[in-house]
Amino acid sequence: MIVVQVSFVSQLPVFGARGDIVLLAAIAAGFESNAARGAIVGFGAGLGFDLLLNSPVGLSALTYCLVGYMVGSLQGSVLRSSWWIPVVGAMVASAVGVVLFAVFDEVFGESTVEVGRLPTIVAVVAVLNGLLSPPARWAMRRAFAESPRSRDRFFLR
Amino acid sequence: MALSRRTGRSRFTLLLLVLSSVTILTLDFRGPGPVDGLRDGADSVVSPVRSVTDAVAEPFSNAWGGVTGYDDLERENEGLRRRVDALEGQQIGDAVARRQNAELRRQLAIRSTSDLPTVAARVVSGPLTSFESTVEIDRGSGDGVKEGMAVITDAGLVGRVVRVTGGRSQIELLTDPSFTLGVRLAEQGDVGIARGTGRGGTLEVDQGIDGDTAVKRGDAVITSGLEGSAFPPDLPVGRVRSVGRTADRTEKTLVLDPAANLSGLSYLTVLLCDENCS
Asked: Is position B251 within any domain?
C-alpha cells in the first residue's frame, strides 16, 4: 500500500494536490472490521508512511489511527443498504483525516500548507479515496477474513 | 455487557496507540536517536522496491503530467520566450563582468562557487504528500552526496540534502518551514536570516535587515556564506516580493520569491561541500 502510494499516487497530482491511499487503508479497515482494528491499521500504515516522509515521525500514525477508530466506531450505525453510503462515508472520513492532519501539522509547528490550498487537497483526497474505496474495502475484507484461518494454521502446527 | 467490554477494549487500544504516536513524535523532536535508525531501516527496505515500481510508474506519471499541465506549459513557454529575448541582451554585458570578476578573484585568491566539486542529478520523485516540500534525486551516498549539502539549478539555490541512501537522496526545498539560511542583500550588503514559510512558495527574512536600509521590490538576495555556513556565498536565493517591518519597527522584514522555479524541477546540481563551504 505504501509503495503504491509513493510510486504511483504521489506522482499523479491533481490540481497540485496528491491523493492519500494510506489514509484509505485505515478507513477501509475501520469500515470492514471494528474500531480497534481500524486504529491499529491506521497507526501501522501511518507510521510506515511517516518513516519515508520529511514531516515529524508519528504525525500520520496519530492522525490515521484516530480516523480508523472513528470509522470503526461509526460503521455499525451506518445503514449499508445502498452502494453509495460507504463511498460517501470514505469521502467524509478522508476529508476529516486531511483536516485533522493539517491541524496536527500546525500544532506541532511544521505548518506547510496555506489555508487557501486546504479545500483543494481535501477535495482531491476525498474524491480519490471515494472512488478507490470499493476495491480497498474488498481487499481489507479478504485480509480480515483470512487472518483467523492463518492464525489457526499457525497454532495447529 | 459484552458490547461495553468491547468498547472499553477499543478505547484502551486507541489510548495506547495515541500515547505511542505522541512518544514517537517527542523522540523525533528531540533530535538524532532511535527514530533516525528506523528511518534508515525503512529507506533501505523500500528503496530497492521503489527503484522497480518507480520505473513502472514513470511513463504514467509523465503522461499524466503532459495531460494535466498542458495549459500551464503553453503559458510558461510564452513567458520563457519573452525572457530569453531579454536575457540574450543582458548576457553580453554579463560576460564582460564575469571575465573581470574571475580575473580579480584569481588575483586575490578568493574561492568561487564554480571551484566546488558538483554532481548532476535527475529528479525522480516529487513530494510524497500535499504537505511536503521535498523532491528526490537519483544520486546518493555512492556519489559523494551527504546530508546538509546545497542543491542548486542554474537559476539559484533549490534546497539542501536531508536524507541519503545508497542511490537516492531527499532534498528539502528552501520554501519548507524548517529551512533557514543566512542571506545577504546583493546591492545593499545587509545580512539577515531567511526562513521558508511553506505558504505560497515564498521565504521570509525576519532578522538582520536594518530599518534604514532602502529595499525595493525585485532586489536580489543571495547566500551570505558567512564562516561555518553550509551554503557557499553568492548563490542566488530569490528576489524581494514585498517589504514590511518587525513589530518593534527597528528592522525590515522581506518576503522573497525563490530565484529557482521549484515547481518544474527536472535536473539539479549538488554542491559536494557539507561544512564550512564559505
From this structure: yes
